[in-house]
Amino acid sequence: MLKEERQHSILNEVELHNRVLLTDLADKLNVSVDTVRRDVKELDEENMLIKVHGGAVSLGFTNHAPQRNNVYALDKKIIIAKKAISLLRNNSVILIDGGTTCLELAKLLPTNLKLTCFTLSLPVAMELLRKPNVETIFIGGALSKDSQMAMGPSTIHALSDIKVDYSFIGTGYVDPEFGLTEFDWDVVQTKKAVINASKKTVLLCISEKLNSQHRFKTCHLNVINTMITELEPWDAKLEAFKNLNIQIL
Amino acid sequence: MLKEERQHSILNEVELHNRVLLTDLADKLNVSVDTVRRDVKELDEENMLIKVHGGAVSLGFTNHAPQRNNVYALDKKIIIAKKAISLLRNNSVILIDGGTTCLELAKLLPTNLKLTCFTLSLPVAMELLRKPNVETIFIGGALSKDSQMAMGPSTIHALSDIKVDYSFIGTGYVDPEFGLTEFDWDVVQTKKAVINASKKTVLLCISEKLNSQHRFKTCHLNVINTMITELEPWDAKLEAFKNLNIQIL
DNA sequence: TTTAAACTTGCAAAAAACTGCAATTTGATT
DNA sequence: AATCAAATTGCAGTTTTTTGCAAGTTTAAA
Fold this sequence. Notes:
Two copies of one chain form a homodimer. Chain A has eight helices and 15 strands. Chain A is an alpha/beta fold. In chain A, the strands form four sheets. A seven-stranded parallel beta sheet of chain A has the order 6-5-4-9-12-14-15, with helices on both faces. A three-stranded antiparallel beta sheet of chain A has the order 1-3-2. Chain A has a three-stranded antiparallel beta sheet with strand order 10-11-13. In chain A, a hairpin with a 3-residue loop joins strand 10 (about 175) and strand 11 (about 180). In chain A, helix 4 crosses helix 5. Chain A is elongated and about 75 Å long. The relative contact order of chain A is 0.10. The model of chain A is unreliable at about 65-70 (pLDDT under 50). Chain A binds a DNA duplex (30 and 30 nucleotides) through helix 3. Chains A, B: One of its GO terms (molecular function) is DNA binding. Chains A, B: This is DeoR family transcriptional regulator. Chains A, B: Keywords: DNA-binding, Transcription, Transcription regulation.
C-alpha cells in the first residue's frame, strides 16, 4: 500500500468521525502504530488535520486556520508601514513598489482611505484589491519569478506616462555615501523609472540595510525625499543620514 | 511497444484505480522498473498524474493540496484544462484570460513546457510564475476587484500591440445563436481586445454554460476557432454547436 | 502518586530512487 | 543504402526513504 493511499484513508477517517485513535488506524491499515504516527505528524504539518495525544482531530472541529507568514523582521516592517501610512491623505495618488516591507504597507492601508494606487508587484496588487476604497492599477510588463514584480523595458515605458504624488519603494542596500544599490541590474533600471514617475519618493528600509551596498546603483540618497526606518529619529545609526537633506521618520 | 503507448496505458491505469505501483506497471508492461519510473516522472512533470514514493496517484486523489480549493465543478475544469494543454507546443506564445477554468489551465501547465505567456489575471500570473519554463508578461491596467483582472482602456490599448498564437478565454454565457455574452460591459470590451490580439482563440467552457445568454455580447461564435468543454465530442448537448465551423474538443 | 499508554529517538533492514554508463533503437541526412 | 547523432532502455552501484522495533521519556487519567 502506498503512503499516499494510507494518508488519504486517514484523512477520510478523520473527516468522517472528527476524531481517530492511532491504534485504531494502525489496526485498520495493517501497519505499525509508529507508521501511523508518522503519517499523522506529516498531515498535521501540512495542516490537513490536527494531531493530538493518542490520535487526531479534524480541522473543522477546532478553529485552527493558521496561515503563518514567515517574514523576516515583520514587526519592524509593520512599524515602518504605519509611519508611511501617516503621510497619506484621501485621494492621494501613490505607487507601491514590491518587497515585503511594501507588501506590509499595502496590507495595513486603512479601509476607509480613498486612494489611487499603482503597483508593479503581484502580491501588493492582491492586497490592494481587498481595500474597498482603493483603485488599483497594475503597471504591466515581464514578470520576474523571484520578486513577483513587473520589470524591464515595457514596464519602464509604461511608467513614463505616470506622475504620482508619492512612491513608496524598498531597496536592497542603502549607504549614506553611495545611496541606494541593488544586486540586480533590471531592478535598478525599473526603480529609476519609478522614481522618475513620482513627485516625491519615500524609501522604506529596515535598519539592517543601513550602511550596506552592492554593485548596481539606483540613485543617490538626495533623490529620495523621505526615508522611513523602524528606528526612533534620534537613533545613532541614523546620524550619517541626517546631513543629506532628507526627511527621516 | 512505443513510449507513447506505454504512457497512455499508465494514465489509464491511474485514472481507473486512482493509484498504481511502479512494480505492477513494470510487470504488466514488460519493461524494467526504471523505464516505468522515467515514464511516470515525465507524466508527473506534465501534470497528468502525481508521482509518489513507490508509484503514482491520480490528480484528484492527492492530499497534497494544502488549501483545498472550493471551485465549482473543479473536475470538469481539470478535464478542459488538459484538453487545452494538448494544443500547446514548445515556444508557443499564448494569452490566458481570467476565471477559474483558465486558472486551472495555468496551474496544470507542464513544468517542462517552454512558453511565453501573457495574462490579465492576477491569480493566473501567480500560477505562471511557478512554472520554471514559462516567461510571464502581465498586461497592465486598472484592476477589477471582483475578477482580479486588468481591464478597461489602458489594458485594451496594451493589447493592441500584441498578437499571440493562441488565446484561451472564458465566458460568462455562450449560446450557439447569440455567441458569447457577459453581464459586464467592461469585460466585453476587454475580451474583444483579447480576441483581436490572437491568431487563434480558444474558448474554455463547462457544459453548464452552454445555451445561456446575458445582456452584452462579446462576439459571435464564428470568431472562435476552438471550443473546449468537458463533454465527449459526440455528446448531444454539443449538437447545436457543430454547424458553426469551429473545432470542438 | 501511580501506572499504563503514548511519545521520542536512534537504529537497521528492505524497498525505492537516483546516477552514470553502455547497448540498442530510432530518425534524419547525405 | 550508409552513417551519424539523438533518444531510449536496462543494468549496476550508491544514496535516500520507508518502516518496524527497542530503549528511554513524557503524558494523562485513575
